[in-house]
Design a protein that fits this description.
Number of strands: 24
Distance between the termini: 35 Å
Shape: globular
Radius of gyration: 29 Å
Largest sheet: 8 strands, antiparallel
Structural class: alpha+beta
Length: about 575
């Protein structure tokens, strides 16, 4: 008879008593009349794992029972149950300050980082505080990074990550700092890797319509570089966003209705994994069926699986001609209905943006304008001159059938640029109404057929609130934002802002939507993921995270809710 016994859940605190365990076991055998001398040789305790033992003696008739009753405590689950509701990221969380443990940074690591980065690192408090507090978000953390490094190459990033992994020190990748859900917080201190020095265009393939860039380049700077070649990169999130950060958050923007999100416009990545290895996720071919889609795994991972060091992007031809149009509506539902009708008509619009009357008022205050303060739709049509004008006339007819008015359009380049500037700076315009407040920004997205219902339902709650709230929507793909202005130091403000946000998120989820269409999860949206995706999906994410990052150094405390256990 051969058997294998595993004491698989024996905690490390029992390791010092293994000798006593062996002694007790052999004593048990002797009291049962067994010849322990005969069985000592085939009975082995593994040197690699002292809790595994095997016995191959066929003359050993024993039953492990009665006097040999051993009780072991199960190891702790791979989660922090203490952070379950109502902690940060847990279900029902309403906290804004992200908690986290902090350990002293080893001097050996500091010396290693100095050798790698030379002068491109800082332990200055102001620099660390700047990188530890997002510029465009009310989210905060109890700690800030211990050191900020500015790598200049993929090799330096790899060496930095290897050193941090060796010392088990947290890493937070840092791009353009335009994220708004606490993605770049450092709740456990550690090392902030600022990618701003890696902003080169490594290769442009005009005939293939793709470009290879480093992650620190901004999308606006990239388009300036591409313009002389008649090409552009079609995603347009907030000003200041960098390509690496856009990949990490799986962002999109106003052009996503025509060109898709970041997921659809990245061909390949190079990524430094948590152990320092460098992985290329795909070839430069426009399509491939070779193996797991590692590119899409990393896009949207928010720095929790690795540091992006190179991105190959799909490009588009600059449109021959475009027309920008605006019109007003008596209600926000009328405006949303027109957005849906336009998409169903089959017209290939490149932008459909919706602003409510409060947002238009903010624009007037901030820019000293006199726009009619009604719910407003903005369109962009592209193609040949004849085709763009034809689309404009078709949409004008749809608008007239839905109580639209004040339809205007522009073809002059400067006039078009001025109109879209109004939309791109809408968030900053909101602060003109409440300069001392901060903004909680919702990012719900629903199937297009539910958009009008969701916006109408949300608008009633927003208008009844004592807080100033505006609505901005990428109406062509069902994604809309509310900007809720509040004072995070006032408890009643915080609770009301959270109530409104919860209302919109849970309304969207009830319509088979999502809590975040383009801003990502960070710390702010973790609490909604279990309801949206289910616990098994989150456990799968946790297993992937643990497999790639067993020391949990990559942007810890983000994306995966802390109450999820495996």
């Amino acid at each position: 008879m051969a058997f294998t016994c595993w004491l698989s859940r024996l905690r490390s605190s029992y390791s010092k008593t293994i000798t006593n365990l062996r002694t007790s076991f052999f004593h048990h055998l002797r009291t049962r009349g067994a010849n322990t001398t005969a069985i000592t040789s085939p009975y082995h305790f593994s040197k690699q794992n002292p809790f595994r033992f095997t016995c191959s003696n066929s003359l050993l008739p024993i039953t492990l029972a009665g006097s040999l009753a051993i009780h072991f405590q199960s190891p702790p689950p791979l989660c922090d149950a203490s952070l379950d509701s109502p902690g940060i990221g847990g279900k029902g969380s309403t906290e804004f300050v992200v908690k986290g443990s902090h350990k002293h940074l080893p001097q050996e690591l500091i010396e290693e980082l100095k050798a790698i980065c030379q002068d491109n690192m800082s332990m200055d408090y102001d620099e660390r505080y700047f990188h530890g507090k997002p510029q465009h978000s009310f989210h905060k953390a109890v700690n800030i990074p211990d050191v900020v490094v500015f790598p200049r190459s993929e090799e330096e990033v790899s060496n930095i990550v290897k050193s941090c992994d060796k010392h088990k020190v947290p890493i937070v990748p840092y791009g353009g700092a335009t994220s708004i859900e606490g993605h770049t917080l450092s709740p456990q201190g550690g090392v902030c890797i600022d990618m701003s020095l890696m902003q080169n265009v490594k290769a442009l393939h005009v005939e293939d319509m793709d470009v290879v860039v480093e992650p620190g380049i901004g999308w606006m700077e990239l388009n300036e570089y591409l313009e002389p070649h008649g090409l552009f990169f079609p995603l347009d999130p907030g000003p200041g966003a960098t390509v690496g950060g856009m990949c990490a958050t799986r962002c999109s923007g106003s052009l996503a209705v025509r060109y898709g999100t970041m997921r659809d416009n990245v061909i390949s990545l190079k990524v430094v994994l948590p152990n320092g290895d460098v992985v290329k996720t795909a070839s430069r071919a426009r399509k491939s069926a070779a193996g797991y889609d590692l590119t899409r795994l990393v896009i949207g991972s928010e720095g929790t699986l690795g540091v992006i060091t190179e991105v190959t992007l799909r490009l588009q031809k600059i449109p021959q001609h475009s027309v920008v149009a605006m019109c007003n509506f008596p209600t926000i539902k009328d405006a949303a209905d027109v957005a849906i009708a336009t998409m169903l008509s089959g017209i290939q619009v490149s932008r459909v943006e919706l602003l409510d009357e409060v947002q238009v008022r903010a624009i007037n205050i901030a820019n000293d304008k006199n726009l009619p303060e009604f719910p407003t739709l903005m369109f962009e049509f592209i193609g040949t001159e004849a085709y763009a004008r034809e689309q404009t006339l078709i949409v004008q007819k749809i608008i007239s059938e839905h109580r639209g008015s004040d339809f205007v359009f522009a073809e002059d380049p400067e006039a078009k640029k001025e109109l879209w500037k109004i939309r791109k700076e809408a968030l900053w315009a909101c602060f003109a109404m409440e300069p001392k407040y901060e903004a909680m920004i919702s990012d719900v997205c629903v199937p297009l057929s539910h958009l009008a219902e969701l916006i109408s339902r949300s608008k009633k709650e927003l208008d009844a609130s004592p807080l100033v709230c505006t609505v901005i929507a990428h109406a062509g793909d069902g994604n809309f934002h509310t900007v809720i202005l509040f004072d995070p130091n006032q408890e009643d403000h915080r609770r009301e802002a959270e109530r409104l946000n919860h209302f919109m998120v849970h309304s969207a989820l009830s319509m088979e939507g999502t809590c975040t269409g383009e801003h990502g999860v960070g710390t702010g949206k973790m609490k909604y993921l279990e309801k949206e995706l289910g616990v098994e999906a989150l456990k799968t994410m946790k297993r992937i995270k643990n497999a790639l990052d067993p020391n949990n150094i990559m942007n810890p405390g983000k994306l995966i809710p802390p109450h999820v256990c495996i």
